[in-house]
Amino acid sequence: MIISNKIRCNNCGEVIESMHVHDYVPCMCGEVAVDGGRAYLKRSGNNYTEMSLSDKSPYDQVRKAYFIVVSNEGLTRKSLSDLTDTELESVGKFGKIHHLLLKEKQYRASSRTSELLDKYYEL
Ligand SMILES: [Zn+2]
Q: What is the pTM (predicted TM-score) of this model?
């Protein structure tokens, strides 16, 4: 599963990302381009550094790169890491991303536990 579809151009240094299937994004010098969004990784040119993430990538990177649309006050794009606990609960019904939402809950629970342990050791 693709989380983010992006590369860095080795010529101009720009980082470009394709956000959806037909989102063709060239870099500013025109040497490389990305396309395909989360559906497939399409590249033009070959002078680039791969920066894409999949759901197998380290989770602390995935949670900042995976965006969900929340509809509390209008539509807002938020990364998993920026969702409030309430939003995390309310978006929990989508099948395809369900395992990521579970992972986010586990991540939060375990970081809370380690915060508590840190406090304990400070005493
Ligand atoms: Zn470029």
A: 0.75
